[in-house]
Every structure is written in structure tokens, then in C-alpha cells.
């Protein structure tokens, strides 16, 4: 994992001191809320329905045990004993006191963490593949590139006041596990003629106007990746709309200019940038990459597993993934228990996950955009002991990628932007489909729930998506089908008129029943939907 | 009726205007009619509340009930964590929100 150098640490410490002063001035009445709001937002501090909410950045979802324990400490000391892992691979605390915020940021800084650029019209936390460095199918480790992008984008003077927020994802495999093409910039590391470089996809996103990012360049040499990203940002910063926040994202610019014209302008800017010598020095690339070297895997670790315990067998089958190193597995801790709140973890659970990562996974964890936690490097011979400890703590639902492994935004229970509650739906769906045999019969089924059009719950990208709306003061839920955040990226379509809370759950049962009736061979839900089409599903739902 | 609400500056807690102070409990809220702008300005300037605003509510036997579900969630707490609401001992409290 990357470790701060003296510059990183000084930047973060200085920001804590600056914010402490700003909070004191706010509490003393020297700053109005209008003056203070942009300052607190620059430090990830929102005002939500019940209290201040702090969003802490977890760079590309990667953290170690010391950092995870600090997240548990903050939950215990300053919040109400839990945290909420988000669809942006971050964590949020819902009950923060303004007067405590500087101390929290100081605590975070002590473990090389912060909340900078988790809000505002700037480049947000870089996201990446949660299996980076462990995946068997990656062509390179995307984390050094995510880290270089993090350093480049942190306090970038030119990009601190963009037309709108900006999200970048980096992956390094053909399988997309990071919703890459639904980001403002999606970067896929690729090889071309033996050289490492990147494909660039620009102008994707969800929100009220969902778009899939088109590919604008099939290969940028790796050492020019930052310059190309900067060229993409420069064109956006120059021409992105600032008069209408709903048309201010780069996806609107790319759509209105057209991919060809936007690309032409980026290429011109890139050609200019290459004359300026702004590529990161080779030594810096090498220095950062060294932090992401493989841990000391046992080269003769056994692939043998005793699967005689049927519950363990199910968990291994559902919640572990092939590792690049023989004798190891990637283990996924599901934060989606029956009737649970997707992404929530108590401080005790957070501490336990830290302990288990230290004991079994070379001190590493990842947060997924699906609101689960990954232990990336677990020796297969340790899996049973790990599973037993997870099971005791309620952290072993064997439901990865099944219908109860749903994504849900905080919704109207916490969020001031929401129009409807999301979490109760996730809970009721987990109860309706609680039978694991039934879930596994349905197979991979990505269910994603948002409480408003801003789409933090990624409903556009759900095989089944749910969007909560306000209909004359009453919660109403639209059902969407056919979305995908994977490499076969697609946007879900609304089935028709919305439903009550119970009604939408009944409708989900109807569409899953139809899927089981119609599917051929090994088709997933999304495959059957694409083959059969919306009409059959609408007919089943509405008659 | 119209009632005033905001968040406590230091803690962020949801608060309701009682006519002379701010309370955590919506039951204590009073009808301010249409003449509330001065109260909002004075109370925010005094840093007793953050971003206060007026909302519609109806008077019931249990006191004022905000017209919009969002304000009812604010008044009680998250419906999915009854233990964190203002009425943790009342399992039916969430029904008031819906």
C-alpha cells in the first residue's frame, strides 16, 4: 500500500489546522453559514437530515488494518457506533458534531487519511477494481495509476472549481468490476505491442441524465496517461457549462459537442501539453509502484480445501474469487445480512474486519462500490478459520452478486436530497428472498436502489433497478430493468407506472418468476432480459 | 399551520422553534403564521440555529405533524434505526412518519 511522504502528510496536517480555525470562526460567529458551507464541504462535511455527515475518502477503496481501526474508533467516539460504506468506495458517518469535526480529521490524518475532495466541484476520490493486485485477469496493477491520479488531482489548482464534480475510475482487466464506463473518465490499462498504456472513455455517468462513456482513444502510452487526463479535464473546464448545474457534467459536454469534436479538442490540447514536459518523472512512477509490490505469498501454498462443512462450502462458492497466486483466494465480506442496512458496519464489526485482515490478508482490505469489504489475499488453508470468525460476527452471508446483495443509497432515512426511502426496500427484499437456495437459483442478479434521481444507488446500472420518487408527498417506486455496470455496460429502462413499497417488491418477484420460466441454459437474469425484451416483462407486471 | 425548524449549529441536531427557544421535539413547535422572517434572521444571527426555515404542518392530538415525509423523518429519526430515534422505546413510532 502507498504510504504518505512528508509532502502528503504536511498537506493533510495543514488542512486539518486550517479547518480547525475555520470551525472556530464559524462557532464564534465570524463566518456565516453561507461563508462556511463551501469550506466545510471541501472537507467532506455535509449537513444532512439529522446532523452533520462526514464523508471520508478511502483512496481507490484500499486501506490497511490501522486505518480500518481508526474508522471504528471514529464511529465509537464521535458517531453512534457505526459507519456506512458507500457506492463510491468511501465511508460516511451520519451523526457528526461540528465541534468534533477538526478532531476527527486530525485522527484521520494520524493514519494517512482525510476527507478532502469528497464533496464539491473537484476531482473526487479515484475509484478502482476492488480486486486490484489480486485479480487473476488483470494485465497490470491499477493501484499505482490510481495513486498517481490521486496525487495529481489532490489540490490541483486548475481543477478545484470545475463546472461540476468529477469522477475517475481505473481498471486493468477486460472484466469491469468498477463501473468504469459510468464515470466522467474511465481508464482501462491495456497492452499494445508489448507496451503498457490505457484506453480512455470519457463522458459517462448516472444521475438524472445517465450516459455510457464512449471510447475516445484506444491507447495512450502509460507515461503520458496523466497528461492525457489533464487534456480531457482542460477541455471540460474550458467549455463545460456553468450556467446550469443539471447540464454541467462532462457527459453533457461530450454529448452536445459530439464524441468526435470533443476528442479532436482533447487531442489538440494533448499535443500542446506534450510540448510542456508535464508527464510525471519516471523515477516517481517507479517510487509509487514499489508500494504496490506483491506481499510475500507462500509459493507452495496448497490449493486443497476441506469443503465438508456445507455452509462453508456455500460461502466459498459464492463469496470467494480466483486469486492470481496459487493457494490463495480473494474473500468478500458481505455487508448485506437479512434485514440489514446495505453497507452499514458497527464499530465492533469494523474492528473485527481489521483484525482479520491483519491476521489473514497481509493487512489489506478493499471497499467495493457494491458496499462490501474485500480481504484480497487469503491463503486457502486459512479460509475456514476466517469464515468461522466472520460467521460468528454476522459477517458471512453467502450472497455475493445475488439478489440480496443489493446496493442502496442512504435514501430518505438520512439524505436531504432523497425523495423516498431506499433502505427499507433493501431490507424487505432481503426478507422476501431470504432463502439462499432460491437466491442461488436466480443466480447473478444486480439489484440497485436509489432514493432520488441523483442515482447514488446506481439504479440505472441494475439488472433490476429501483428509483424512489415523491408522488404528491407519498413515496413511490419506479422499476427499471436491463442495466449493467460491467463490461457489457447498459442503462436500465423504466418498466412503466410506479408502485408502492410492497407493490414494487411484488413486481420484482413477478419479473424473477418470468426469468426462471424463460431462461435458457446458463443465462443470467440480464441475458434473458436482453433476449426476451422488455415487452414480456411489462406484460407480466402490468398485464 | 407553519412551524420553524433548523439544525443546532454545534451538534447538527434537528430543532424546532417553541416561540422562545429551540427544542429537539416537534411536539413543542408552535404555529408562527406568516410572520417568521424576523425570527429566522435573529435566531440564525444569534447562532442558536443553523439554516432555519419554515414548513407546513398540521395540528394533531399528538401535536404538530409536518406535512412532508422528509420533515417527519427529520423529526423522529431514521425509520430503519428505531434505536436511534427520539422514541427508541416505542416500536410503533415509525408509523407516525409514514
Please explain how this structure is put together.
The complex is a heterodimer of chains A (543) and B (98). Chain A is an alpha+beta fold. Chain A is built from 17 helices and 20 strands. In chain A, the strands form 4 sheets. Chain A has a 5-stranded antiparallel sheet with strand order 1-2-5-4-13. A 5-stranded antiparallel sheet of chain A has the order 3-14-15-12-11. Chain A has a 5-stranded mixed sheet with strand order 6-7-8-9-10. With 98 residues, chain B is α+β, with helices and mostly antiparallel strands. Chain B has 3 helices and 5 strands, in the order βββαββαα. Chain B starts with a strand and ends with a helix.
In short:
Chain A is of the alpha+beta class and 543 residues long. Chain A is 37% helix and 18% strand.
Compute the number of strand runs of chain B: 5
Largest sheet of chain A, described in full? 5 strands, antiparallel
How would the global form of chain B be characterised? globular
Question: Which percent bin holds the helix content of chain B?
Answer: 10-25%
Parts with pLDDT < 50 across at least 5 consecutive residues of chain A: none
What low-confidence regions of chain B span 5 or more consecutive residues with pLDDT below 50?
Answer: none
**Which percent range fits the helix content of chain A?**
25-40%
Strand order of the largest sheet of chain A: 1-2-5-4-13
Question: What portion of the residues of chain A fall into strands of 2 or more residues?
Answer: 15-25%
**What's the tally of helices of chain B?**
3
Mean pLDDT of chain B: 95
Backbone CA Rg of chain B:
13 Å
Secondary structure category of chain B: alpha+beta
How far apart, in Å, are the first and last alpha carbons of chain A?
54 Å
List the secondary-structure elements of chain B in sequence, H or E: EEEHEEHH
| Largest sheet report of chain B | 5 strands, antiparallel
Number of strands of chain A: 20
Task: Indicate the multimeric state.
Answer: heterodimer
